[in-house]
Amino acid sequence: MQLVLKSATPAPKEKKEEKKSDDKERTIYVCELHPEEVFDKPGQCNKGSCNGMTLEARKLAPGSRVVYTCPAHPEIVSDKPGECPKDKKKLHFKIVSDTSRTTETWVCSTHSGQTAAAKQKCPDCGVDMKFVQVEELLAVPFSAVIDTGSRKVVFLERGQGTFDAVEIHVGPRAGEYFPVTKGLASGDRVVTQGAFLLDAETRLNPAAAAAYFGAETKK
């Protein structure tokens, strides 16, 4: 039986004094035209030209939370609504996750391969580069996930040939990967090939389960 181990990447973005993420899925309600406010209940937006437009429901996966940022100054992040201290404009809501991170870069709209760490002109066409934010998610290969019907599990390496079955929460499948919203951290080594064999043997042979997981067998 061949077991292939692969690190789960990328690392979650670290921030100090962050609001604790939600452990359970919940729904928020927002107005796309007025992203400075977030509501816990359905309703209508009566600001400006909205004239009673129904708020849009957004799902927050486990491990996600709402923060407020300034579109013009992305380094400004707050746990509460307010104004940007630099331009006094309203902060906009943003959904972030403990298993994701946002990278910031400058890119040419015509030559997408040209990127930079700071604002500058594209060396190919001379046009000013645009600021963009790219969200990176922690993900595991589809082959690593065992779906029991009631939960999803991966086998996590614990060292010295032992493995733990760990329950994870995932988002919709994207190609050959599942985005992980809860249950793993950057650097965790999971079985990506042969996981189903481990699962089958632990169901059929409790003694094998003890060997794989370092558990104790009792009569």
Notes on the structure:
This protein is mostly beta strands and 219 residues long. It folds into three domains: 22-97, no CATH class; 100-136; 139-213, conserved putative lor/sdh protein from methanococcus maripaludis s2 fold (Beta Barrel), CATH 2.40.420.20. The protein is built from two helices and 18 strands. Strands 13-17-16-15-14 form a five-stranded antiparallel sheet. Strands 3-2-6 form a three-stranded antiparallel sheet, with no helix packed on it. Strands 8-7-9 form a three-stranded antiparallel sheet, with no helix packed on it. Helix 1 (195-204) crosses helix 2. The two termini are 28 Å apart.
Q: What is the succession of H and E elements?
A: EEEEEEEEEEEEEEEEEEHH
Strand order in the sheet with the most strands: 13-17-16-15-14
- What can be said about the biggest beta sheet? 5 strands, antiparallel
Mean pLDDT: 75
Fraction of residues in H or I helices: under 10%
What Rg, in angstroms, do the CA atoms define?
22 Å
User: What is the helix tally?
Assistant: 2
Number of domains: 3
How much of the polypeptide forms β-strand, as a percent range? Answer: 35-45%
Structural class, by secondary structure, is mainly beta
Q: What's the number of extended β-strand segments?
A: 18
Straight-line N-to-C gap: 28 Å
Rough shape? globular
Report low-confidence residues grouped into runs of 5 or more: 1-18, 204-219
